[in-house]
Automatic annotation (TrEMBL):
<feature type="domain" description="Beta-lactamase-related">
    <location>
        <begin position="35"/>
        <end position="283"/>
    </location>
</feature>
<dbReference type="InterPro" id="IPR050789">
    <property type="entry name" value="Diverse_Enzym_Activities"/>
</dbReference>
<protein>
    <submittedName>
        <fullName>CubicO group peptidase, beta-lactamase class C family</fullName>
    </submittedName>
</protein>
<dbReference type="Pfam" id="PF00144">
    <property type="entry name" value="Beta-lactamase"/>
</dbReference>
<dbReference type="InterPro" id="IPR012338">
    <property type="entry name" value="Beta-lactam/transpept-like"/>
</dbReference>
<dbReference type="InterPro" id="IPR001466">
    <property type="entry name" value="Beta-lactam-related"/>
</dbReference>
Amino acid sequence: MNEAIFEGFIKSNAQNNLNVYGIHVYSKTLGSAAHHFRAQERVHLFSGSKAFTSMAVGIAAGEGRLGLSDKIIDYFPQYRDIAAPGAEQITVKDLLQMRVGHDKSLFTTLEESHEHKLDWAELFFHTPMAHEAGTAYLYDNGSSYMLSRVVEAVSGQNLREYLMPRFFAPLDIFNPQWHTCPGGHSLGAFGLFLNTEEFSRLGILLLNNGRWQDKQIVPEKYLRLAINDTVTTAGFDDIENKQGYGYQLWRCTVKDAYRADGKYGQYSIVLPDRQAVVTVTAHNEVLANDILRAVWSEILPSL
């Protein structure tokens, strides 16, 4: 791939103060290329971590460890007595689509009370239900955290340990850091650190229907659901956040495109129509989705 593909994007980054760290482009027909605006170091993917949590759920489902319609309380019988009325109806799929029924997101960086509470799962189940499970969307870090706990419950390993031989090692991602809650459980919703090129491997695997080289890593059947079984989002103003939400993956305004999406502009964007993946790491505190628009205008025409 000719690195001239980045010329317009580099100008846009400078002119619009996008604060991009690095961009990696992969094309099945053109090959791959990358441009770095700073050292190629691992960065916090923030909510980009959620897509990896979804991959773990898909792998666990493929191993017969769980089903998407499973009631998650069945994996945590110790919380039955304290669970809010209605919480016993929350399913794995509700967690994936962020339709658990809460009226506020748990475990956000704006909160402080949860930092000192050892048992975050207890807090999740004890949170009052504002809606019937499976009926109302709310972007909720608690949903992704509980997916991590579900994987741990069915496997006996925390999320990172579970993914090491099944996902990270096959993709040659060495010893990734994934932060834990005070109880020692992988955060799931955020806390994973990778560099731009390592992050791109997620998108490339998704483009290839869950395969990496000659090995099926994530079941293709699960990925079809993860991408296409979407719900309508609420609470966002930007059009890029109004295209639908799958299993911890966002749909895009570009036809058939979808992405892993993290705070401040961590994106791995899958473009099936172009048979390509564009991955970006950044720190844009103003309007990170302007990075997406720069990709649409400056990179897509060359793919």
